[in-house]
Amino acid sequence: MKKQYYILLICLFSFLLSNSRVSFLRPGAFMRASNYEAYNANKLFSIGIGSEITSLGDITSHSSSVAFNKTNTNGTSWGFSYTVLPYVGIDPSAADLDIRYEVGAHFQTNIYSTGKTNITLGTHDFLLNNEEMIALKDLSIFLNFSNVVSINKYSLESLVGFGSGRLAFDPHAESGSASSLGVYAALKLNTPLLSNWGGVNFITEFLHGGLNLGVSIPFTNEYNISFGITHIEYLSDFSS
Q: Per-block average pLDDT, block size 10, for the chain (240 residues)?
């Protein structure tokens, strides 16, 4: 009961913090990209809570999200998310008043596998916003090709994919078109650090024309914490 209380408290705190594609929270997520996630009989489902800070300075802008994800024995994964969106205006006095949210549904399936190589097809970001509208330009339809190479106690997962919607444009920085298509790539290095709990993962993504870096650290078999920086090439402009 005490564990459930702490989880509820963290959820409420995240909502108060107030990208709609918050890193690490989609099914099979690297950071903002997603891939095939193998079924684990010991994991019934997963709940993720995350926040992204998009600006510090005169305007402090950030988004928070809670997500529920489930992977099935047949190679399909699906999930739901609730996200408080970042402020994207230019008036500092309105930053704490203009609070918007989105509720999203996400689905993906593994359509080909050789054990080391997988092809994954998915539809993410079927989003309903606080105005009860669904924007087709936000719908992220994607196809991924991934491969895993193992050397000693290390494994390197490489990913190349292309997708529409919020995989083609960054909702933090620009508006997108329903006809746009983005190409992206990612690497995930699993190390023997904390191997009893699954190992520490180092992640690199080339997405939205920028570079994302992240690390995912387990601290039990059931819990892990992840940190990352998206669009590291813009770090010098973070305060603006």
A: 41 41 91 90 91 80 91 94 84 76 93 92 89 78 96 95 89 59 95 95 94 95 93 75
Tally Cβ neighbours within 10 Å of residue 108. 25
What is the spatial distance between Cα 230 and Cα 170, in angstroms, rounded to a whole number? 10
The 10 Å Cβ neighbour count of residue 90 is 9
Nearest to 111 by CA among 147, 75, 146: 75
Query: Would you call 166 exposed, middle or buried from its count of C-beta atoms within 10 A (0-12, 13-18, 19+)?
Result: buried
Dig out the tokens for 133 from the structure. Answer: 């509208």
Q: Which candidate, 148, 203, 149, 223, places its Cα nearest to that of 23?
A: 203
Dist CA 162 CA 119 (whole Å): 12
pTM as predicted: 0.83
Which sign does the torsion angle of CA 160, 228, 209, 130 carry?
positive
Yes or no: say if 119 and 110 are a contact pair by the CB < 8 Å rule.
Answer: yes
Residue 174: predicted pLDDT: 57
